[in-house]
Automatic annotation (TrEMBL):
It comes from the Bacteria. InterPro entries: Cu_amine_oxidase-like_N, Galactose-bd-like_sf, Glyco_hyd_98_carb-bd, Mao_N_sf, NPCBM_sf. It comes from Paenibacillus montanisoli. Residues 43-88 form the Copper amine oxidase-like N-terminal domain. Residues 98-228 form the Glycosyl hydrolase family 98 putative carbohydrate-binding module domain. Pfam families: Cu_amine_oxidN1, NPCBM. This is Glycosyl hydrolase family 98 putative carbohydrate-binding module domain-containing protein.
Length: 233
């Protein structure tokens, strides 16, 4: 079957391609040359066809697929929040999010202040880029203590080797421990440089007054991504 080249306005791709019919206002519009293909979708071996208005396309060598169709075919709900221009797949946050990178620690040791200063966007070994993240890349143990005053319910984050480790030898990088008022709430397994899945952190911090995060590196440059550490109220 012949490929078809078309022009799309980038500003409406979220509404038309990802959500199938949702109207979205775009601040900036750009004309894109794309190529549509007769894509077939298989989920656990079963072929499912997308609606006519939710077709995939190719742009600059990358294939884009309709998020709503794919997510719902996998049993996950998709929610668009226009106020913050956010897309949620699966569960939405249960309460207000406060990212660790937006808070000032009460006290620190080692190079923790440097980790905070260098926080931002990082890409993991699996080519996933996350904002509001930290990179645990210090050769000495480092820790930071935060005063929560019992105002949060949960602390969530992820751990994964950075894209720096692509194509490099396997190494044991280090561990992280999280304390609430002096008690261990979480102790990670050893993070390896060839890990292919995120180590998810989800702990109850209800009534916790002081939270301490301790990082213990095993090598000089561990390059572990501390993915979107955040508190939920």
């Amino acid at each position: 079957m012949l490929k078809k080249s078309r022009q799309f306005i980038a500003g409406v791709l979220v509404g038309a391609t990802l959500f199938g019919g949702t109207t979205v206002l775009a601040a900036n519009k750009t004309i894109l040359e794309i190529t549509t293909l007769p894509l077939k979708y298989f989920f656990d071996g079963l072929q499912i066809n997308p609606p006519e208005d939710q077709q995939g396309f190719v742009y600059k060598g990358t294939t884009y697929v309709p998020l709503r169709f794919v997510s719902e075919s996998l049993g996950e709900k998709v929610t668009w929040e226009g106020k913050t221009s956010s897309i949620y797949v699966g569960k939405m946050p249960e309460g207000k999010l406060t990212y660790l990178t937006d808070l000032q620690p009460h006290s620190t040791s080692g190079s923790f202040n440097t980790l905070i200063k260098d926080s931002g966007n990082f890409t993991t070994i699996m080519n996933q880029t996350y904002s509001k993240s930290m990179q645990l890349n210090t050769y000495n143990p480092a820790s930071g203590e935060y005063l929560l005053d019992g105002q949060y319910k949960r602390f969530q984050a992820g751990l994964m080797p950075d894209s720096y480790w692509k194509g490099k030898n396997s190494e044991k990088l280090g561990i992280i421990k999280i304390y609430g008022d002096g008690e261990v709430l979480y102790s990670s397994p050893t993070i390896s440089s060839n890990a292919s899945e995120i180590e998810n952190i989800d702990i109850d911090v209800t009534r916790v007054l002081k939270l301490s995060i301790e990082f213990d590196p095993y090598i000089t440059s561990p390059y572990i991504d501390f993915i979107q550490p955040r508190f939920i109220q």
